[in-house]
Amino acid sequence: MIRQENCKIVSNRPIADNIFELVLEGELSAEMAQSGQFVHVKVADGFDPLLRRPISIASINDGSFTIIYRRQGKGTSLLADKSIGISVDVLGPLGNGFPADEAKPGQTAVLVGGGVGVPPMYELAKQLARKGVNVISIIGFQSSNAVFYEKELAEFGEVYVATVDGSYGRKGFVTDILDGLEGQADIVFACGPTPMLRAIENGAYAPKTYLSLEERMGCGIGACFACVCHTKDDPQGFSYKKVCSDGPVFQAGEVVI
Ligand code: FES
């Protein structure tokens, strides 16, 4: 059930260059089940900035939940300035997340996260490892100062890191690492920038692939149509899906990305 709640800030700290981890306390956490869902956070009191910010859920805990955001622009700067103990207005959980049940015990799931697409992979890795799925995580960033959650993901399986400038891990893109895994994946789950998702879709690295199109979000609640994308079977026509309410997670081949 979707609810709106004033959630108390338990912690709000930088974990990489302009990347913040925010832990919120609230009954909302009991409504959360799927990784890849998101919450809509009101970053300021009053109407400035007017819009809420859609932020994906990184971890669902008992009585609290964790979200991770990039500080860029006025809204998220206001959020970064908020201190422990105060409350923020949160709406959620929203959207359809990753179908963890599609990965069976004993199978290998490869989780791919790029930049702020990494956070939902943490909750997914946790859920998959708990039911006996072999988890391999591949995370990609621009450079070493942007890297986060490598250690956290390592709790659940092997982790590979790629940086574009080569300052940490392997130089290049997450797909360079995926290329090297040669048929190991039974299923791929990915979240990150659109070019990364396109490359993963085209690479067909596993029999099943699920992609989260987070970058295409606007209002987050089905009202603005900023997030619509065409379905693959009708790429020029009137058949479309809303990323915020039909997604953000889609099976590869379902929509035009
Ligand atoms: Fe506004 Fe989806 S983001 S309708």
TrEMBL record:
PROSITE patterns to which the protein is assigned, alphabetical: FAD_FR
UniProt KW Metal-binding keyword: yes
Cofactor binding note of this UniProt entry: Binds 1 [2Fe-2S] cluster per subunit.
GO MF: 2 iron, 2 sulfur cluster binding; electron transfer activity; flavin adenine dinucleotide binding; metal ion binding; oxidoreductase activity
Annotated FAD binding sites: R53, P54, I55, S56, I68, Y69, R70, G75, T76
Binding residues annotated for [2Fe-2S] cluster, in chain numbering: C219, C224, C227, C244
The FAD-binding FR-type domain, residue ranges: 2-100
UniProt xrefs under InterPro entries: Cyt_c3_hydrogenase_gsu, Dihydroorotate_DH_ele_sf, Dihydroorotate_DH_Fe-S-bd, Dihydroorotate_DHASE_ETsu, FAD-bd_FR_type, FNR_nucleotide-bd, OxRdtase_FAD/NAD-bd, PyrK_electron_transfer
Cross-referenced NCBIfam families: PRK00054.1-2, PRK00054.1-4
Quaternary structure note: Heterotetramer of 2 PyrK and 2 PyrD type B subunits.
HAMAP family attached to this UniProt entry: DHODB_Fe_S_bind
Protein's UniProt name: Dihydroorotate dehydrogenase B (NAD(+)), electron transfer subunit
Source species: Mesobacillus selenatarsenatis (strain DSM 18680 / JCM 14380 / FERM P-15431 / SF-1)
